[in-house]
Amino acid sequence: MMSFNSIFLSTSLILAMSFISNRICAIGVQSIPFVENYDIVDYEKSENWAALPTKQDSADLTPKDLATHEMPFDIDVFFLYPTSFTKADERWNATIDDAKINEKTDNASIKFQASIFNKTGKVYAPRYRQAHIKAYFSKDHESARQALDFAYQDVRAAFIYYLEHYNNGRPFILASHSQGTTHAQRLIKEFIDKKPLQKQLIAAYLVGLPVLKNSFYTIKPCLTPEETGCFCSWRTYKTGYEPKTNIPFDEIAVINPITWTTGLAPADKSLHKGSVLADFNQLKPKSQTAQIYKGVILTNKPKFRGSFLFTSKNYHVGDYNIFYRDVQENSRLRAKTYLQTQQGN
């Protein structure tokens, strides 16, 4: 029998991908004006973190099929989750203590995405007052901008608190998905790119949104599996999909999340390390292909219980976990390479 988490993820794959692929302009409700005067989030409180090394959370979980003796390195992973505030709502931003939204975040993104990195380092994932998904599609551009700006202020405060109280000078990976990637790019520009902190950056995984190759001054797209100080980005669609964007395809950064190169040749299933889909405990290796095509990744339709109901060609929600073990092994390789390089200097 499928667990609640399995049913939830399958439903999310169907519903949330439909949101993104169809580029909805509104959620069908009237929006209340943006509200600025919220209290500042206290990141000293562990409940304001979705993942923290000092407490048990969904980022600690490991699929049973992936029970290995790999020990994490002495590095950190700062993870920014995607939008889970998707149901029709007149608010522009979620509250920090919304139990249903937090449960949704924990049972989906933290479990199926952030947990990828627990074999690489200590995982930190702050809760933040995320913008409603309509911020990406609404015609009310000013309110949408303010909602995302407000969410970023939480992310920014959490990152500062992390640096001042948790990091202790350790190298780190910055990983994000969707709305998280919107905020991660701003963090890089404000705190990392051409700043002293850049020397601690192992790599950034900026996934789920188009990221331009020239987004940053000195942090460039990764070109090889072991490269450090760079960023990886991809968006996943079904083979046969024709991308539609106003951005020239050759300006979008994209890496193949199986080969970890930027070549256009397809990676066949024999190279795929493994997906983790509806059943969190089941690793499905050699089940996916990957090919770079016009700024995105094309792959075959994932198979999981109920997948026959899933007809979208947009695999946005599966960007990470379709390549679960691939990302995990690659993040470990980059961390290992970074640490070996530092020891040699």
Tell the overall outline.
Answer: globular
Amino- and carboxy-terminal Cα gap: 53 Å
Mean pLDDT: 90
Strand order of the largest sheet: 1-3-2-4-5-6
- Structural class, by secondary structure, is alpha/beta
What's the domain count?
1
Low-pLDDT runs: 1-35
Instruction: Give helix % range.
Output: 25-40%
Kindly report the oligomeric state of this protein: single chain
Q: How many helices in DSSP terms?
A: 5
Topology order in helix (H) and strand (E) letters: HEEHEHEHEEEEEH
Q: Calculate Rg over CA atoms.
A: 19 Å
Largest sheet data = 6 strands, mixed
Strand content: 5-15%
Find the count of extended strands (DSSP E, 2+ residues): 9
Summarize the entry for a quick read.
With 345 residues, the chain is α/β, with parallel strands linked by helices. The chain is 28% helix and 11% strand. α2 links the parallel β2 (76-80) and β3 (122-126).
What secondary-structure arrangement, pairings included, does this model have?
Blueprint: H1 4-22, E1 49-51, E2 76-80, H2 99-112, E3 122-126, H3 141-167, E4 172-177, H4 179-192, E5 201-207, E6 230-232, E7 236-238, E8 291-293, E9 296-299, H5 324-344
Parallel strand pairs: 2-3, 2-4, 4-5, 5-6, 7-9
Antiparallel strand pairs: 1-3, 8-9
Helix pairs in contact: 3-4
